[in-house]
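To the team - adenine complex, inputs and output below.
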Amino acid sequence: MLQFDVVTIFPPMFDAVAEAGVIGRAREKGLYQLVAWNPRDFAQNAHRTVDDRPYGGGPGMVMMPDPLGKALAAAKQRQKSAGVKKPRVIHLTPQGKLLNHALVMDLVGEQGIVLLAGRYEGIDERVVARDVDEEISIGDYVLSGGELAAMVLIDCIVRQLPGVLGDAESASQDSFYDGLLDCPHYTRPELYEGQVVPAVLMSGNHAEIGRWRLKQALGRTWKRRPDLMRQRKLTEEEHGLLEEYKRETAGTA
Ligand code: ADE
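Output:
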């Protein structure tokens, strides 16, 4: 079972991922375990202080190394007790490596992951130097803390674990699985406020439907994410489908 430990001053935030939807069900099924550690429980003074002013001056506060280090040590100890040989310790920060599908799939193979979610301006760099294996960012914007980023990581890792998604919702149908964005989806009714469902989807011809879906995925990726398109080698068939897409949508927005 995949073991997660999170170091955070807001443990209740993690109830949100642990309780809702497929990720909540996966926890009930015992497919992963999640334990939160609050650095305040390891603070030295009666106020349970975990932050202090930055050396060198400037605005904001910095998370002190000692409570964080002790919380991390407790997290790693629990992982060892749960049978994890070498937990991977990740600090969530905008300074980290950008998260993508390849990095998610790399993390899915781990036995145990310790997530360090900082608040304030950041954490004392000596904790990073001593205890952290890698830093990960979920995007080029700044959150008020690492908790939401840690939850994003937990969510996208857990949904890749065997047994979490049923066949019908298989992760192999997801965007990025094959380096492309997903195709558009439709359900009933056939006519919604003047808009119809593409005829091919009602044809019952599964080869044609598959071809249409791949064409839409290629077209959307080409239009919206040229960066992904450059990384993706196209087969002869895909190249033809993309050209078809370009012809069909020429002149439209
Ligand atoms: N903490 C604050 N902003 C973040 C981001 N974009 N990614 C990961 N951790 C963060």
